[in-house]
Amino acid sequence: MERQQWKKIWVGSAGNMVEWFDWFVYASFATYFAGSFFPSGDSTAQLMNTAGIFAVGFFMRPVGGWLLGRIGDRKGRKAALTLTVSLMSASAVLIAVAPTYGVAGYGGAVVLLVARLLQGLSVGGEYAASATYLTEASAPSRRGFASSFQYVSMTAGQIVGLGLQIILQRTMSDDALHSWGWRIPFIVGALGAAVVFYLRRSMLETEVYEASADDTHDADKGTIKALWAHKREAFLVVALTMGGTVAYYTYTTYLTKYLSNSAGLPKQTATLVSFCALIVFAAIQPLAGMVSDRIGRRPLLITFAVGSTFLTVPIMTMLKHAGSFWPALGLSLLALVVVTGYTSINACVKAELFPTGIRALGVALPYAIANALFGGTAEYVALWFKNAGIEGGFAWYVAGCAAVSLIVYLLMRETRELDLNKVSTPASASASASVSTVTTSG
């Protein structure tokens, strides 16, 4: 890759890492601050309350997807990326200073809710802006490799969060962590976002977007009207995201809680399992992206869906009885290797479906809707099954979602060879031979 392209990927990834550090820190530290915002009682009920607020953040993502996707298509990818990190910084500050239940009653939970709404707004636009930016900034023959850094950076954000959690667990008492130590990562996130804001102000716009500046369809850029001209592709994004997002959040944000709350592992051990598994997971994303540049996107997506459909129930069952670090790590790695077939390339697959003038919104809104319905609710659904005494039902739910996406992957066309500058415009969407749609011809 040229040096300019590497610079664009680096700046886009660095911001994405901070965004997702703040997003995932909420989930990974929930076991420590759940009791701070809700009345004392059953620990599972407290976790369900915090998981409910976590899910609410996802339901704000479609709004963020629409608003920031529109900005990304009309004002540029740089403008959208700069705004998303500003919103994330503000939300991190709010959580860091939120009053506890003992001080303000449910007032602290309200502050937590507002912060999560801001995070949802921010991440709703961040995913699409980042996916579009990384895909457009890369050479045509290396889009899979370049876009894989989205999940490298997303996972790196979680790794940093888990690493900080491990350090705090080993340097602070459990009482101190539950009392005030959980606020530290949110302060760190706010400071990191401020640094990335500075970096993104000087980032370069993509050549693909700049080449579309004189497009005669400027008035329709980033509009629902323009997106509706590509409604088949938008529905395709929802369907192909369904299985991947449920599996991803199951084995990342929910894994630590599952290992500690269901498998009975100490919190420190559960955190270390997630930390080590995610390091390997991040490392293999570019490798899978490179494979997709050679053999296409569909083979990886199909491999993921088949693996998730048939392996989720056995993996989740064995994880519950893992008993110690090494078996839990091995099973977690197996699950994440399977998920890599989706995470490494889903960004470029979605971006490759839409023309430049609607690409950010086309990725953002349908993806955010799918995440609100399936990704954001995964943890809450898992805890609901547990609270109802049928915890094993959640694994079947994850497998079922993967099976639905498998059907989509089998029927969709390959997107690897598409020229981003020549994907159909809204005016010519009826001639959709140059965009990927669900078709029985496979």
From TrEMBL:
The keyword Transmembrane helix applies. May be a proton symporter involved in the uptake of osmolytes such as proline and glycine betaine. The chain crosses the membrane at residues 20-38, 50-68, 104-128, 180-199, 234-251, 271-288, 300-319, 325-345, 357-374, 394-412. It is found in: Cell membrane. Belongs to the major facilitator superfamily. Metabolite:H+ Symporter (MHS) family (TC 2.A.1.6) family. It comes from the Bacteria. InterPro entries: H+-coupled_symporters, MFS, MFS_dom, MFS_trans_sf, Sugar_transporter_CS. PANTHER family: ALPHA-KETOGLUTARATE PERMEASE (PTHR43528), PROLINE_BETAINE TRANSPORTER (PTHR43528:SF5). It holds the Pfam family MFS_1. Residues 8-416 form the Major facilitator superfamily (MFS) profile domain. This is Putative proline/betaine transporter. It comes from Streptomyces tsukubensis. One of its GO terms (molecular function) is symporter activity. One of its GO terms (cellular component) is plasma membrane. Keywords: Cell membrane, Membrane, Symport, Transmembrane, Transmembrane helix, Transport. It is a multi-pass membrane protein. The lineage of its organism: Bacteria, Bacillati, Actinomycetota, Actinomycetes, Kitasatosporales.
